[in-house]
Design a protein that fits this description.
Elements: H1 6-20, H2 22-25, H3 28-54, H4 61-74, H5 80-102, H6 107-125, E1 137-138, H7 153-176, H8 179-189, H9 191-196, H10 201-227, E2 229-230, H11 237-250, H12 257-275, H13 279-293, H14 297-302
Antiparallel strand pairs: 1-2
Helix pairs in contact: 3-7, 3-10, 3-11, 3-12, 4-5, 4-6, 4-10, 5-10, 7-10, 8-10, 11-12, 12-13
């Protein structure tokens, strides 16, 4: 999987610095919008572990996202260093339970199996006291360990989300350069060859599935922390499809693609709402244009690795 070239890394770093400086010049609305985009980027990165690395497309990802978000609600109001690992663990365990069953299938049947499991999770919270009904509910944010005045909340959560996104992206860059990362990517290239080389393909797929689920739970936790709201809609299959759209828009073959795609899709949705009142229509037009004219996504257009640049950190000689 391609990581950003050196110029691309500088561009990503510059974008991160620009976001970090937003408390100095941006409005609370713009900071909230940037926080929403970063949560979406975290969620899309979790799915990229499957789609970009192993070639598996899962529609259960939103279920794990919702599990992470609802863990914050179900735990009450303990501090964030309790709710965050609990959300990651809950989503990871959910993926560990679903994974062995879903991975018995392949291709279209894997896609439909994950859709079925995702819908089961959705209806477990939909229109039930457990999920707060169809309208969802507002929750008490877990304490961060220091007082946060109401006026400072947009800036604080902006910086927290930026830090978490940077850590996850850096960690995945490292992972894709390890032997495990190369093995996962080998499955996407040629599953039969990896099996012939002695790799336990099913185990590797399960590792990727659980890792992706745990990261989706982390994204769900950050969503609940940022918005102080949870809803059964967080578990809907369309959320998984939206994450897939971010990956396609940003670039399947690039690890930084979901980040670009998340910000681009957020901008398109907000722009469509402000200009036309029909964001889904504008989103569809943009997606069709991307499929027709931007086959490698935004990453392939702007941050394409230069000739001779390794496709992952571990490929450097």
């Amino acid at each position: 999987m391609i990581v950003a070239s050196r110029p691309g890394q500088f561009m990503l770093g510059g974008a991160g610095l620009a976001i970090a400086s937003m408390p100095l010049w941006a409005s609370a609305w713009h900071m909230q919008l940037a926080s929403t985009a970063m949560v979406a980027a975290l969620f899309a990165l979790s799915l990229q572990v499957l789609v970009g690395a192993t070639g598996l497309v899962s529609l259960a990802q939103a279920g794990f996202f919702g599990l992470g978000a609802y863990t914050v609600h179900l735990l009450g109001s303990p501090p964030v260093w309790i709710t965050l690992p609990a959300a990651v663990l809950a989503a990871g365990v959910g993926a560990l339970l679903i994974g062995p069953l879903a991975l018995r299938t392949k291709g279209f049947f894997f896609l439909m199996t994950t859709l079925a499991f995702g819908q089961m999770l959705f209806f477990a919270f939909h229109d039930t006291p457990l999920g707060g009904g169809t309208d969802g509910l507002f929750i008490v944010r877990p304490p961060l360990g220091f007082p946060v005045p109401r006026a400072a909340r947009p800036a604080v959560f902006l910086l927290v989300n930026l830090g978490v996104l940077a850590i996850v992206y850096t960690g995945l860059c490292w992972l894709m350069g390890t032997m495990l990362g190369h093995a996962l990517q080998g499955i996407r290239s040629n599953e039969n060859r990896m099996a012939a080389l002695g790799h336990n393909v099913q185990r590797l797929k399960l590792i990727a599935f659980v890792l992706a689920g745990a990261l989706a739970g982390l994204a769900g936790h950050m969503s609940a922390l940022t918005d102080a709201f949870v809803s059964p809609e967080l578990l809907g299959w369309h959320r998984s499809a939206e994450a897939l759209l971010m990956i396609l828009l940003g670039g399947i073959g690039a690890l930084h693609g979901p980040i670009l795609g998340a910000f681009a899709l957020t901008a398109v949705q907000e722009g469509g709402t402000l200009l036309t009142g029909r964001p889904r229509l504008v989103e569809g037009v943009v997606f069709l244009a991307a499929v027709l004219f931007l086959r490698q996504g935004l990453a392939g257009w702007r941050l394409r690795a230069r000739k001779g640049v390794p496709t992952s950190i571990g490929d450097r000689r």
